[in-house]
């Protein structure tokens, strides 16, 4: 558990960081909180020759809510997400999710940018971002572009981000309807056996005006359950439609066996967790 | 006048002796990060060692090419078995009478085995260089299942002893078979099994796990070529034994070896054995003439230094229809991995597994244990337990439950009618032990009452009814356990490690101004010896605990002892401390009598002083006596005030306890929540109640971990599946429930202060209590027994197999 050798860089502006990445090419890796990257380096699964640390770039640390849009700088830590009163009002599901990530020590270091850019199916933020229909802003040598969270994840550790791009901001519409993030894990600090992000908005007439469901660690990418979400909006929320939605989501997932258990168990647990998440979200809607 | 105006009670309290919840004197240092651990040691010119390890579980080593590693700047040397062979150090003896490769000699036998040792100028270069050593392997068939070890097509693991029909513990019937150990009466037990009205049977598996101390194992070896002295700092639970072994192995005279155990960050049995890293660090220092540090990382710790448990215990228990137990039969298949490196007293190849009759008066019993080689890491250490007592306690406490089901009887009641009665002590068990003391019924009844056992059972029945009616998906489990420990190894006549009798020692020096230092042959790894041993002494010699320094772990200064494990420190070294204290007091009595101008027999001891009998106003305090011993010429008495005691315990001690755990189980997700845990411990005389409580909390939390998920698991190719803390379960405060602790106090009749040892009881008793709760929850649905560890998916699987998800 001793990492290989690397050079350490600490640019103080986004331009300098992007410049460094272009100059150093594929031997360089961005480091944010380091709580996914450093463990991989200690196992020598990652052996970057250069680390470009983003922590001195002030423009990457912010939480802004304006005009119905939440904008979060990539270097905002999970602890800061939990502590933000503004965010709690604009999108309470972010805090609920963040509190289920790792443990307090890790959350003081780990960032939202690192969590969504990492591409590990075990990370909790990606499914949340898909449920929120978030966009990720990427800055590369050719300028900036936005990619939808729902289009970002290609396979485990493969994302739409180019190696030379830095993820600078996460943005999504404010979301004040019913919400829930339910996660089954073996202990504090463990990745999910199964987890579900659910957003349900109840219209004045009791119908479901908005539904979004996404699942964590049940396939090699987060799973946005489009069909189930649409079904709930069309048919409204009832015991029957919840059962139907759960059925639909479970057919979308492909969990793999690991020390948490075989796929069969994970599917069963996922169905239970999702059902609870839907019920909680609707009760808050 | 002010000091002497104190009442006797005040003087007593000022000592902070036996029974005082004195704060731990170690903690100021530890909580401020001022501990001094092996990895804190820095020396000029110190080199760093790192291992090239096998990724295969079983393979022939065809070649090892070290040239690229040696070419890396900063690399000093790379050792392989070939380099160690001329010194006779490519293999080393294990504590269990087997031998173990220090570096792979022709083949590797488990994943993670040490193949080559790289020595470099810094830790990072050493790690880089291990990647540059090219090892060519020829893979061999892998044996992971001990029940397949003796099949015709089983690969032979230990070619070095393939033809040896006799091992350290008697005949071997197959090259993969290590020993058979038999205790008790086979024929009469089997006769009872065939005639008894009721016989219950079960295969009880106590899975492989690991002590996983916070600090991993490590050493710094420094050979001073000028004076010929070797100093070895290391994470040693038995530093004196390490010195003797190092001397025997290296040929360096024992007085030229100094072994130091500095602060140790937890041991739990993991730091009893001798590991290849220690040997390689020593050789590397001798070869280079520079100090060499080796500290394993977390994954190396979990995968290569000593594991614990891995016992398959086939049991049969016979009883009358009314539930009186008639006989117990057990056959254990013990998976020892590639080398038999168990840390047990020599005559006990399966440790004290023969305490498996537990707290019960079982007239006839038979135990056989077969040790088996497999392609797994060696070990088999006592993880917070006294030599396989945990396995024994788990076995009997599961068998009692299984029998209760068979008899359709309440398991608390079944225990009660079979307990060894208070008046049966000293009790001779069918498997050969003499239980020193106990009062099980009192403890048991206190526990049942404290938790309102009847009320709990009623609530559980109601819960089952609700579950069956579809009103809840949660089940309630009540886990009972009454355990009996056997600790304090042990009497030299039957307990030794590598021939060294398992006595222990204490040496006391009283300083002229009335404070003192005591040195012991044990070594604290977090147990708080510096706190509690001072308390024993305070009561014995009347010097406040705060004025007594306790020192352990440096073989140049401490008296010889066998170290700390198996809850032996208090029973053995604690006894030595009390006995040495009594020698001090005997001499002090003569000095006091001289000073008071009376006969020796005319003074008597009172808290912190000798008084003239019948005239308590005439006295000499221990402080005054100490000063006099250095300042006055006392006829017929040597100057100074010192004593040494080497204590050979006449018997083991037998702590016991009653634990009750209540769990709520989510049948759909397999998540088990601990609602409450009641732990009554009887460890005899209580030295420091606060430390006892801390030990109980710690041990219960380790028990929780083991029962609910902590395991070292292998796949069929011998790959370790749980080699990091991502998967190896260590509970956090979040997973840890509130524990309700309680006690009874039944002093040991043979221990000088009646103390029995407590550090391991909660692990021994905790595991069955947690496991029984899980099993109990599913009992109403037809479950007899389900194996540990009870992680979410296995609980879910149990529910699934019982049809509870249909
Ligand atoms: C014991 C433990 C338990 C954990 N449990 C959980 C959990 O339950 N749920 C969970 O979601 N996470 C968990 N984590 C991971 C944790 O949340 C990480 O902090 C997070 O995944 C990564 O964020 P980071 O800021 O630490 O990123 P880093 O580790 O620094 O980076 C991760 C990856 O993202 C890249 N990267 C980082 N920032 C950017 C950026 N702005 N632009 C482009 N690329 C970037 C890096 O190059 C690297 O490849 C756990 C971690 C540990 C150590």
- What does the overall shape of chain A look like? globular
Count of all domains of chain B = 3
Number of strands of chain B: 35
What name does CATH use for the topology of the largest domain in chain A? Uridine Diphospho-n-acetylenolpyruvylglucosamine Reductase, domain 3
Question: What is the number of E strands of chain A?
Answer: 14
CATH class of the largest domain in chain B: Alpha Beta
- Radius of gyration over C-alpha positions of chain A, nearest whole angstrom: 19 Å
Describe the protein.
The complex is a heterodimer of chains A (285) and B (806). Chain A has twelve helices and 14 strands. Chain A is an alpha+beta fold and 285 residues long. Chain A folds into three domains: 7-53, Uridine Diphospho-n-acetylenolpyruvylglucosamine Reductase, domain 2; 62-173, Uridine Diphospho-n-acetylenolpyruvylglucosamine Reductase, domain 3, CATH 3.30.465.10; 178-284, Enolase-like, domain 1. A five-stranded antiparallel β-sheet of chain A has the order 4-5-10-6-7. In chain A, strand 12 and strand 13 form a beta hairpin. Chain A is globular. Chain B is of the alpha+beta class and 806 residues long. Chain B folds into three domains: 8-35 and 504-647, Aldehyde oxidase/xanthine dehydrogenase, molybdopterin binding domain (Aldehyde Oxidoreductase, domain 4, 2-Layer Sandwich), CATH 3.30.365.10; 38-140 and 216-264 and 272-304, Aldehyde Oxidoreductase, domain 3 (Alpha-Beta Complex); 400-489 and 652-801, Aldehyde oxidase/xanthine dehydrogenase, molybdopterin binding domain (Aldehyde Oxidoreductase, domain 4, 2-Layer Sandwich). Helices cover 28% and strands 26% of the residues of chain B. In chain B, the strands form ten sheets. In chain B, strands 3-7-1-16-13-14-15 form a seven-stranded mixed β-sheet. In chain B, helix 14 (529-541) links the parallel strand 27 and strand 28 (548-552). The longest helix of chain B has 28 residues, at 569-596. Chain B is globular and about 85 Å long. At the A-B interface, helix 12 of A face helix 5 and helix 19 of B. Bound molecules: flavin-adenine dinucleotide (FAD).
């Amino acid at each position: 558990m001793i990492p290989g050798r690397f050079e350490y860089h600490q640019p103080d502006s986004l331009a300098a960081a992007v410049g460094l990445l272009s100059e150093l090419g594929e031997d360089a890796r961005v480091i944010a909180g380091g709580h996914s990257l450093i463990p991989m380096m200690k196992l020598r699964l990652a052996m970057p020759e250069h680390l470009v640390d983003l922590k001195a770039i002030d423009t990457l640390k912010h939480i802004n809510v304006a005009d119905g849009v939440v904008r979060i700088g990539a270097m905002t830590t999970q602890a800061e997400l939990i502590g933000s009163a503004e965010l709690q009002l604009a999108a309470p599901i972010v805090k609920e999710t963040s509190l289920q990530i790792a443990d307090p020590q890790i959350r003081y270091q780990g960032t939202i940018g690192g969590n969504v850019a990492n591409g590990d199916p075990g990370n909790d933020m990606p499914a949340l971002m898909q449920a929120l229909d978030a966009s990720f802003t990427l800055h590369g040598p050719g300028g900036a572009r936005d990619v939808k969270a729902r289009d970002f994840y290609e396979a485990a550790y493969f994302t739409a981000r180019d190696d030379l791009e830095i993820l600078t901001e996460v943005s999504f519409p404010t979301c004040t309807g019913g919400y829930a993030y339910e996660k089954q894990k073996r202990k504090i600090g463990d990745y999910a056996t199964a987890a579900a992000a659910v957003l349900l908005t109840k219209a004045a007439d009791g119908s479901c005006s908005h539904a979004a469901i996404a699942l964590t660690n049940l396939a090699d990418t987060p799973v946005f359950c489009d069909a189930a979400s649409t079904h709930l909006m069309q048919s409204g929320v009832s015991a029957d439609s919840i059962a139907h939605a759960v059925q639909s989501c479970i057919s979308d997932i492909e969990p793999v066996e690991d020390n948490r258990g075989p796929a069969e168990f994970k599917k069963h647990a996922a169905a239970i967790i999702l059902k609870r998440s839907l019920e909680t979200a609707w009760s808050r809607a | 006048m002010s000091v002497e105006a104190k009442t006797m009670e005040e003087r007593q309290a000022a000592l902070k002796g036996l029974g005082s919840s004195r704060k731990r004197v170690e903690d100021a240092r530890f909580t401020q990060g001022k501990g001094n651990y092996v990895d804190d040691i820095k020396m000029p010119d110190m080199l760093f060692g790192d291992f090239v390890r096998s990724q295969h579980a079983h393979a022939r080593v065809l070649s090892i090419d070290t040239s690229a590693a040696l070419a890396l700047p900063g690399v000093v040397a790379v050792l392989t078995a070939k380099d160690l062979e001329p010194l006779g150090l490519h293999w080393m003896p294990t504590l269990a009478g087997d031998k173990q490769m220090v570096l792979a000699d022709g083949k590797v036998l488990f994943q993670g085995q040490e193949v080559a040792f790289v020595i470099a100028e810094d830790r990072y270069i050493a790690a880089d260089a291990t990647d540059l050593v090219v090892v060519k392997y020829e893979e061999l068939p892998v044996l992971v299942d001990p029940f397949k070890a003796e099949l015709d097509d089983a690969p032979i693991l230990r070619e070095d002893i393939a033809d040896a029909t006799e091992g350290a513990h008697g005949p071997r019937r197959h090259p993969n078979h290590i020993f058979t150990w038999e205790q008790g009466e086979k024929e009469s037990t089997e006769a009872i099994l065939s005639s008894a009205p009721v016989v219950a049977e079960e295969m009880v598996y106590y899975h492989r796990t690991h002590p996983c101390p916070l600090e991993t194992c490590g050493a710094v070896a420094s050979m001073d070529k000028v004076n010929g002295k070797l100093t070895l700092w290391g994470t040693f639970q038995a530093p004196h034994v390490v010195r003797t072994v190092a001397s025997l192995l290296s040929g360096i005279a024992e007085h030229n070896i100094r072994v130091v155990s500095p602060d140790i960050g937890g041991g739990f049995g993991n730091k009893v054995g001798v590991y290849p890293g220690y040997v390689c660090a020593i050789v590397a220092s001798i070869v280079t003439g520079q100090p060499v540090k080796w500290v394993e990382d977390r994954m190396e710790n979990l995968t290569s230094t000593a594991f614990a448990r891995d016992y398959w215990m086939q049991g049969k228990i016979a009883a009358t229809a009314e539930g009186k137990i008639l006989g117990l039969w057990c056959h254990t298949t013990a998976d020892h991995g590639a080398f038999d490196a168990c840390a047990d007293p020599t005559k006990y190849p399966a440790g004290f597994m023969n305490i498996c009759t537990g707290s019960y008066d079982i007239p006839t019993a038979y135990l056989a244990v077969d040790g088996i080689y497999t392609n797994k890491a060696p070990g088999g250490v006592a993880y917070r337990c006294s030599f396989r007592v945990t396995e024994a306690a788990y076995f009997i406490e599961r068998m009692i439950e299984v029998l209760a089901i068979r008899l359709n009887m309440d398991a608390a009641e079944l225990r009660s009618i079979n307990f060894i009665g208070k008046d049966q002590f000293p009790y001779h068990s069918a498997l050969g032990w003499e239980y020193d003391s106990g009062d099980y019924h009192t403890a048991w009844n206190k526990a049942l009452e404290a938790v309102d056992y009847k009320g709990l059972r009623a609530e559980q029945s109601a819960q089952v009814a609700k579950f069956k009616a579809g009103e809840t998906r949660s089940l309630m489990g009540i886990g009972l356990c009454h355990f009996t420990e056997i600790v304090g190894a042990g009497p030299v006549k039957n307990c030794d490690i590598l021939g060294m009798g398992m006595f222990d020692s204490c040496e006391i020096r009283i300083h002229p101004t009335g404070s003192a230092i005591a040195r012991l042959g044990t070594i604290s790894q977090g147990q708080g010896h510096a706190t509690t041993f001072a308390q024993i002494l305070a009561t014995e010699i009347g010097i406040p605990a705060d004025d007594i320094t306790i020192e352990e772990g440096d073989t140049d200064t401490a008296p010889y002892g066998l170290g700390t494990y198996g809850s032996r420190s208090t029973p053995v070294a604690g006894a030595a401390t009390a006995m040495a204290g009594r020698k001090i007091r005997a001499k002090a009595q003569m000095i006091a009598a001289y000073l008071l101008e009376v006969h020796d027999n005319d003074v008597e001891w009172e808290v912190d002083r000798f008084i003239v009998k019948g005239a308590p106003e005439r006295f000499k305090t221990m402080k005054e006596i100490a000063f006099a011993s250095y300042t006055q010429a006392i006829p017929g008495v040597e100057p100074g005030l010192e004593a040494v005691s080497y204590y050979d315990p006449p018997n083991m001690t037998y702590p016991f306890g009653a634990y009750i755990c209540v769990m709520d189980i989510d049948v759909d997700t397999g998540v088990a929540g601990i609602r409450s845990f009641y732990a009554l411990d009887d460890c005899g005389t209580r030295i420091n109640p606060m430390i006892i409580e801390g030990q109980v909390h710690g041990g219960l939390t380790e028990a929780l971990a083991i029962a609910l998920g902590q395991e070292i698991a292998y796949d069929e190719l011998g790959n370790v599946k749980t080699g990091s803390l991502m998967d190896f379960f260590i509970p956090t405060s979040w997973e840890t429930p509130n524990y309700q602790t309680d006690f009874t106090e039944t002093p040991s009749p043979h221990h000088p202060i009646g103390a029995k040892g407590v550090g391991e009881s909660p692990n021994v008793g905790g595991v069955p209590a947690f496991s029984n709760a899980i099993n109990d929850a599913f009992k109403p649905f037809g479950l007899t027994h389900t194996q540990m560890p009870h992680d979410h998916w296995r609980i879910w699987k149990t529910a699934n197999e019982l049809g509870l998800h249909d």
